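Try this one yourself first.
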């Protein structure tokens, strides 16, 4: 599985770099969306996919990764809400720098809060924080799919219309990924996999395949949009 995790990390590295570069080179209305997807790289893949690097397997890093993952879905969901308002009013407020600073500020504040409670971190805490994160991802993915559908109907006659169809595919893959992990955690299938082997195997492979498809679709979507918006 280590080879798979490294390959997965490479896919998300490409997706993260592409999304961050996209956020720099395009209008403010795209910034929160792109930054949110970039944070998946920081919050999920680095501590989760490369545990054999020094320090990345520590409980503090794992919990912080799940917190950043939660921040990620909140930031990108806010971005899609902003974009929907933009398609209705053709107006948006704020500037790109504020998005970067707010996201960084929330992450730093979370790091300090977690560090102040580092002595309380154990396996139960990691599991609870992971469940909170995945719950946010599952329900906000469904909400975002519906919101992106509405955005698509507002921009379907523009060159970027198909890009929002691609985002719906992205969130469908994320729903499969996060939903499967949530199912495993809620029912502790990893601890009773010998009793329910079929359920665990199906959930395990749905989680991994959803993760791979999400990473590929994120990178492909931003590359496609970047080409259209040049």
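Now uncover the answer:
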């Amino acid at each position: 599985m280590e080879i798979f995790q490294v390959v997965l990390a490479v896919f998300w590295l490409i997706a993260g770099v592409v999304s961050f570069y996209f956020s720099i080179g395009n209008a403010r209305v795209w910034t929160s969306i792109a930054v949110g997807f970039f944070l998946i790289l920081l919050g999920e893949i680095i501590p989760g996919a490369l545990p054999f690097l020094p320090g990345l397997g520590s409980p503090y890093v794992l919990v912080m990764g799940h917190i950043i993952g939660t921040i990620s879905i909140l930031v990108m969901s806010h971005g899609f809400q902003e974009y929907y308002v933009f398609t209705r009013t053709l107006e948006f407020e704020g500037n790109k720098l504020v998005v970067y600073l707010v996201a960084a500020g929330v992450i730093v504040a979370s790091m300090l809060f977690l560090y102040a409670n580092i002595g309380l971190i154990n396996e139960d805490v990691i599991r609870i924080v992971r469940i909170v994160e995945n719950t946010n991802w599952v329900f906000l993915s469904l909400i975002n799919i519906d919101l992106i559908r509405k955005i698509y109907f507002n921009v379907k006659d523009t060159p970027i219309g198909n890009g929002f169809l691609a985002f719906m595919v992205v969130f469908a893959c994320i729903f499969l990924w996060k939903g499967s992990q949530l199912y495993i955690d809620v029912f502790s299938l990893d601890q009773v996999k010998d009793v329910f082997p079929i359920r665990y195997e199906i959930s395990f492979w749905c989680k991994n395949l959803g993760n791979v498809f999400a990473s590929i679709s994120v990178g492909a979507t931003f590359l496609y949009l970047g080409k259209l918006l040049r």
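Discussion: Residues 146 and 168 are 8 Å apart (CA to CA). The chain has a mean pLDDT of 90.
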